[in-house]
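Incident log entry.

Two folding requests arrived from the same account within the same minute. Monitoring flagged them as a possible duplicate submission, but the sequences differ. Recording both here for audit purposes.

Request one:
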Amino acid sequence: MEAGQLWKEEVAEIHKKEFKEVKLEHMLADNCAMQLLRNPKQFDVIVTDNLFGDILSDEAAMLTGSLGLLPSASLGAKDKNGNMRSMYEPVHGSAPDIAGKNFANPIATILSFSMALRYSLNLEKEAKELDIAVQSVLDMGLRTKDIYSKGNKEVSTSAMGDAIIAQLQK
């Protein structure tokens, strides 16, 4: 049996055990890329291997206008104690090419932490507060360089983070 078929069977088994209420569909990566651009709202979760996940998440990021806005999570299966091993990171990764320049967008990193609060730490209230703080700052018109447009205020990485913290402290 080929690796792709084994992977499909493993996903189907996890789906049957833990996510019965979620509609499960298989789609080839090239079709998924097209469907993301054609009708992104049809997707809630996309499960893929790392290669296609990197490609599709970068494509999806441009629907929002920037890699700096999208959090991501690699959610593992639950162990016998009900704990899920997971990894959270912004879609853009660490962005080493712009490290230390104070113009990277911190929102994807902050929202990745929100996902960790929600899915690994079961802190829904705190996750929602963080999500609301980010949205409030965006509603105020603050923008990092990557999402700046006329009529908004361009801010640095640290200023965006400080503004989000200030919203949390209200």
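Request two (distinct sequence, not a duplicate):
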Amino acid sequence: MSIAIIDYGAGNLRSVEKAVQKLGFSAEITRDKSAIRGARGIILPGVGSFDPAIAELRSLGLESVIEEAIISGKPFLGICLGMQHLFESSEEGKLAGLGIIKGKVVRFALDKNPELSVPHMGWNRLLVKRRSPILAGIDDGSMVYFAHTYHVRPKDDIIISTTTDYGYDFASSVWKDNLFGIQFHPEKSGEVGLAILNNFGGLCK
């Protein structure tokens, strides 16, 4: 298995798996620690609420496995809620995040933009600030699909890879060494999303 898709009960795992397999990569949905440790790359997806999901992840004993994988240098991709879990805390809940990335998760503050609604749903543009390896060949301004009420706010702006405008610019993807996080759903983002997953899969060979 080249890519382990972590199953902790949060997310549309099957659609991520199918998208990765469509690209020709070996991928498996798993919560088995040895399988995750043996994978060449790891995806942490996520849909839902912060606290229940992070609590389940910890109850399965997967926190240390994730930390080990990232420290070891394996390519690691957090998607949507999965990216948010990598941060220290979230305004959505009371539980601590994994704290692998310094910063917090905040709710959209759209008080001055009454024409916009929360959650942020649908297609929006990626504005490239720092081109990470998974953005190779992706045009600045490419459209991807979002579905979220909260977004990440890194302590260090240098890790922000793309921003997206929704009333104001928010960090829509981050990159630090072998660690990648994206707020949008690549499996729902057409050819652009598949290209991003293909770039990630190439890092896992």
